[in-house]
Amino acid sequence: MDRALSFIEEHHQRHIGELEDFLRIPSVSTDPEFATDVNRGADWLAERLRTAGIDKAEVIKTDIHPIILAEHVTDPKKPTVVAYGHYDVQPPDPLDLWTSDPFEPTVRDGQIFARGAVDDKGQLMMIVNATEAYLKSSKELPVNLKMVFEGEEECASESMGPFLEKYKDRLTGDVALICDTSMAEPGIPAITASLRGIVYMEFFLKSSNRDLHSGLYGGAIHNPLNVLGRVIASLHDDDGRIAVAGMYDDVRDLSAAEREEMKRIPFDEAAWLETVGVRGTWTEPGYTTLEAATIRPTVDMNGVWGGYAGEGSKTIIAAEAGAKISARLVPDQTPDDIMKKLQRHIREHTPESIEVTFNPLGVGSAINVDPNHPGLKSAARALEEVFKVPPVMLRGGGSIPAAAMMRDVLGLEPLLVGFGLDTDRVHAPDEHFGLDRFRMGIESIARFFSYYGENGGA
Hints:
By secondary structure, the chain is α+β, with helices and mostly antiparallel strands. The chain has two domains: about 1-195 and about 365-455, Aminopeptidase, CATH 3.40.630.10; about 200-250 and about 295-360, Alpha-Beta Plaits. The protein has helices at about 1-10, 10-25, 35-50, 120-135, 160-165, 215, 225-235, 255-265, 270-275, 290, 335-350, 375-385, 400-410, 435-455, and strands at about 55-60, 65-70, 80-85, 105-110, 110-115, 145-150, 175-180, 190-195, 195-205, 210-215, 300-305, 315, 320-330, 355-365, 365-370, 390-395, 415-420, 430-435. A hairpin with a 6-residue loop joins strand 1 and strand 2.
């Protein structure tokens, strides 16, 4: 391991330069106009894996965006790590809020600014660089390693399920290493103990075959925009509980001991609010802000449209209105069941004179991590050695659909080790990643490989 760690230190500047090259590729998966760039990102990453010394790295086409499957098996007796990451990124909009070009990486005050810097190109490259450190310094990895790097995480990982089913015989392993999460706070590493699932869809309300004059038809027919407002208002009661029938039927609450454990997680609510410019919280009764943001189900509107929003006036009743809506799920909630309950609620709050249609956009299950898995113990040891403090077990409020898929299809326990911070502006303008965390992440993964490889991962 010592030679690998020396290699990491010696090649830190090269690793930064390669990350900058990767970040220059606008691999936006949600916009078809960037499809060529997504393909270019996959090709770049596969070639980088080959130069790192990986035995086999393939770019496998799917119906949407490519998935990279890489393998380096050194000894069948060693434990096998299946590493996951995603090379696609969110759209950079709004562009005028970026301090610098989102696809021209810029280093300021030790942070690298670019779309995808922390989510997830920077964290993905930590796995690649840690692997290279062993293969170039000692020619051998402490573990067998397989990699699945997808290009659709930001658009619900639609191709991942079929891909894992098709290639599951090649993806057998002992643990799924996923570096797409966050630290507890600066200087305090974390292993994520749970993630919420997600249901995401859009729906459309239509009343007429064209926009109508509000003076001739107003007051006589249902206005889709007015109906949309009523639907949105019906989703929660005045106390903040979700008002969708059956939403809490399968919700598993944490035990008293687990909630006490959460209280030990470093969390400065005032600083958390100040960072994003929010004046106050609005949580489900009986739960703290941190609990509401991580372990409870949610329903949120993600976008609405309809009518005229240009300059000046245009007095119409829009023919159609629409919205995007998402729900975050907790363990035991089933995405298909929640999708049906949301759709039923919307239909029940839409008058018969309005046609309602739905377009599902993606689902993912919630996950809980086995606290006794040897991979977690190896990761905790590695993180404590690098950061000089033991890692905190976090509850994550976000979703990584592929994590649940790897558990359900491949039978792999997810090991969620991330190096982002809440202040990294993930999905927002001026996304960035600390170069110190980039280096420490590479070292942490290298140490994890060594410790997990000892004694067959036990």
